[in-house]
Each structure stands twice: as C-alpha cells, then as structure tokens.
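Hi D.,

Good news: the full-assembly prediction came through. Inputs first.
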Amino acid sequence: MPGGILKEDPLIEKPAFRVPRYDPLIALFSVAGSLLILMTALAILTIAIPELADPIHLLSVAGDPAIATAFLLTFSAGCVAVGLLVVFGTPLAYVMNRVHFRGKPLVESLIDIPLVLPHTVAGLMIYLLFMSRGLIGAPFAEAGVFFEDAYPGIVAAMVFVSMPYYVNGVREGFAKVPVRLENVARTLGATAWKTFLWISLPLVRRHIISSGVVAWGRAVGEFAAVVMIAYFPMVVSTLIYQRFSTGGLAESRSVAFLMILVCFILFFIVRWLTHRMEDGHDQA
Amino acid sequence: MIRLEGVCLPLPGFELKNINIQIKKGTHLFLVGPSGSGKTLLLETIAGLHPQVSGKVVINGRDMTGIPPESRGIGLLYQDYALFPHLNVRENVEFSLRARGLAEGERRERSVPLLQKFGLSSFSDRYPGTLSGGERQRVALARAIAAGQEILLLDEPFAAIDPELRSRVFEEVADIIQSNNLTVIQVSHSRDEAYALADSVAVMMNGTIVQAGAREEVFSHPKTPGIARFLGYENLLHCMPQKTAEATLFLTAGNCVFRSQGTIEMGSPYTACIRASDIRISAEHPRTDGTLCRTCGVITGIIEEEHGVKVVLDCGVPIVARLSWNEQANLRLYRGQSVTISIPPECIHLIQYSPDDTPYTTDNRERTINNGYGVV
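Then the structure:
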C-alpha cells in the first residue's frame, strides 16, 4: 500500500490494553467458558471417533453421488439465500437503522419472529405461503415456477429462517456509521444513492460478510422449515434424517460427520481470515 | 447572500422556530448559543439535510425549497471533521470531484495543487485514522474547498484542536476564508473565537435566533439578560434610575451606586449588565468624582483562575470582579477585606427590566425582536 500505511477498518474499536492471561477473573471465566467448548468438542468427538476408526466406510459414504448432490444442493441454496438477503436485507437493515417511523417495533418484531418460532411452524408458514395455491406460490405457479419439492422452496425456507441473523447484524453495522459522514458526502455533491454506495456500504462491508456467513450457516443447517416445503430434492439435513430413519445410526452418522467436517473447515477458514485482517490492523 | 425566511423545523422533542436572518456574501457569521439550542440543526437545515423544513432558505436569490444538499453549493464541516475513514487523504479531497463524475486524471490534476496548498502532499496516501487533529482539519477544509463551494458551514471546527495549535489554526482558517472569499457560518461556544474571526454574530437560544448583528454590537449591546449572561456578562444587577442634580444615577438593590450613559426612562427598572473584568477594585474610601461612582463592598471569596483571580464581593448585592495576577500582586486582596469598587459608565449595558428575563430562556420580547430580519 502506498506510503506504507495499512488501511484501517474505521469501525473497529481497539481495546486500550490487553487483559493479562493470568488475571484470576479471566482464569475463572475461561474455566466456566471451557465447559461450553468442552460440550461442543465432546459432541463432535462422539461422532468423529467412530467414523475415523472406519475410514473405508467413511470414504464410501463420501463417494456416494447422492450425498455429493445433497451437499452441493445445500451449499448452493444457502449461497442463493444469502445473495437474496444481501440484495433485499441490506436496504431493509439500512432503513431500520436510519429511519424512525410509527410502527417500527411491529416491523422489528416481524424481522425477529423466525428467531423465536419453532422451525416446524416456520416451515408451515412457508409452505402455506409458497405452495401452488399460496399467496405468493400461486402467481409463481402460473409462471411455471414451483416451490413445493423444488429448489426455490428450499431457498425460500432458508431465507426465512436466516433473515433475522443477517438483517440485525448489518443493521448493527449501519448504526456504527455516523450519519454525519453521509451528510457531508451529500453536501460534497454526492446523491443519496452514491452516498450509500461510496460511503455507507463500504463501511459496513465487514458486517455484511460476517452476517452473511452466520446467515449462510443458519440456512444450510435448517431442517424442519425446509422439509415442510421440500422433502425432495434432499438437503443434507433431510438426508441425515432420511438415513437415520431407514438405515439407522451408522448410516446417518457418516453423513453428519461429513457435514460437521465441511462446515468446521469453512468456518475455521473464515475466522482465520478475519483474525488475520484484525492482526494486520493492530500492527498498523 | 443567504436569507432565511420564517424557517421552522419541527422534530420530536425539539424544533427550530421562526428563524429570520440575512447573511451578506463574504461575511463570517458566528452562531453562538448554549448547548442544545439548535445551532448544528440550523446549519444542517441550511445545507438541505432536513427536507421537512418549512419557511424559505434563499441562497443568492434562489429559493432552495426542494433542492437536495448536493445541488445547493454549500460545504459543511463538523466538529470531528467527518473525514471518510475508508478513503485516504487524496481520496477524501477528491470526493466532490468524483461525485461530479470527473475522470481520475482530471481529479488528480485538480487535487495536487490543493494538497500542496494545504500542506497535505506528504501524507496524501494516509488514512484519517493516522492523522493528528490539525491535519484532519486541513484535510476537511481542503475537501470543502475542492468542491468549489462559496458557502461554508463550520460546526465548532476548532473544538477538537489542542489549545497550543488553536491560534495558528485560527490564522490559517482566516486566510483560507479570505483568499477564497467564502461566506461562512460558524457554530462556536468560544467567545474568543468569535472575537478573533467573526464579522457578525447571531445568538441562538431554544431553537431560535434571539439576536443578530455586527460583532461589536452584539457583544456590547445584548438585548436580554439571558443573552448578556451567555455572552459573558457575569454581573446582572436589577436597578432603578434616580435623577440627581448633576447626573443620572442608578441605585441597585443593594448599596451599590453607579453612573451610566445613554437615555434612560425614569421610573422604569433596568438590568445593568457588567463584565467582571470591567469592575475595578481599590482599597480607597468610596467617593464620587466626575467620571466614576465608587461604592464599598466586602470580599467574600477569591478564586484563582488561569489568567488571574475572580473576586466575589458583597456590595448589598453579589458582584463578581476579575483581576490579573499583576493587579492581585499589587493589591494583595484577601477574604473579608473591605474594598471600594468602581465601574466606568461606558462598561455598563442597561436593559429595561422584565420579570420574564431569565438567563438562557426565550421570552416574549425575544420573539418580538426575532420577528424582524436581523441583517448581518
């Protein structure tokens, strides 16, 4: 970078000092927190150990074309869902942060409702809305686009359940962008649209990425809402359920382990990259 | 010229009320007033950032109603300069040129002389987070100048600068404003800044302009005790005029007698506004001579300050005086000491007393004053 100055993320607040690791309070908190980490690690190990003990079976499952298709379907549908959230959720997050209007708590509750609903209920709502006779499904059906037992239905369910994670995350990002920056940009000749594209959006880039990753994780992990509208084609979670119902624990466990492995590697890479960026900023 | 005609801006919990003022081209107007009086909001309204405004903002004869901020030709500088943190110095300065659709080469061509003029060339690739307060301010000014705006709105631009740097920055800003013949409206809490830079001053309280005029006029003739208090008149004494054979004298509520200038309406109470630094203290016995009225009081407190001491006196009414360190060294004043105070008649500003006059509030008379245009 010219001048040897690293570009700083203006929205990152660096701590004034680092708490020493030997601090008794930190030690106590670390022990308490470790219990949660331990629980997750044990849950993974209970699946991983038997699978790794039988690599031949694991490889045969991994080579199953049905499983590869399910993974591809799940991850691509998750990406499409996140893409839709970026296109429609980012403007929503901006409006929810910048505009005060009558009935805002109602809209906020509507955004949050997928968080609190049982996912079977979410699935039922999606099904009723997007089925061929549904309010949204009917006009699409007339145009030849169907949601029941189809890829669009999976995407619709994923968008619904992951929306609050994305919208609320990006909204927090916009809250950290001072309105003054937008005001100044306007007085410098930028239209409202250019101001959004050149000032607001770049400053929430990090929130868009992190919220998108969380929303993607939530989307690919969804089972109940997806299965209500689209049992077929099978996403990974449906496939695991199907294998568990028909082939027992051993069959479903292998697919589950592969899902854990792929998701863990993906999230590890994202976290590692994020930390690398932050370390770069710390050295700036 | 900027003209505001009956500008009102209702917001939840606060409103700008009936603002009328004219600002001539090339004028440096200081907008002063207590915190929360609506100064920043008024700047933003002039810039067009609050479309729900009623009334008219007229700039160079053109009614700006419905004109968006990007088409008004007004630059706005906030207290923290609001530099775009993800753009480097050059990109910040070139922002307005980019917004106008200029190609990169042309932008560079125009920004290079500006960066040189403002002493920013050596760190044009750095980001705002790595700059000092003074450097940030120069970038913000260069950015505003690059936009070619003839009107600049400054919201406390010196508040974030170290006191040692401030006087140098004052001069730099004054040079830039003069050389570019800018019309400037500057929000400030500092009377020193206003004295140093302002051509004219408008005082804002409770969402409206309560007084506007030439700097000297406003500072020496505040229209209400509330304005006087804000402008640094520490002593507001309620008094009644008393005619004598020799001259018109005023009797305060206490035992303080002093002479004043000007036309006085007999039988009507007044508020005498006196700056603490205009009160003289001596150890002599009280007497009346041709120029001064002297009266006695007892020192009830001496408070040390940065540039001298504040002396609190009981003269039947509480009076505050300020002395330099040298004066205090000569007089060696102490608490409980009986002293004589005198006030030069030209240092006493009289306002007809009204029971509604309370500091920092808008009374009916202030609203009446505001009904006419304050031309500055």
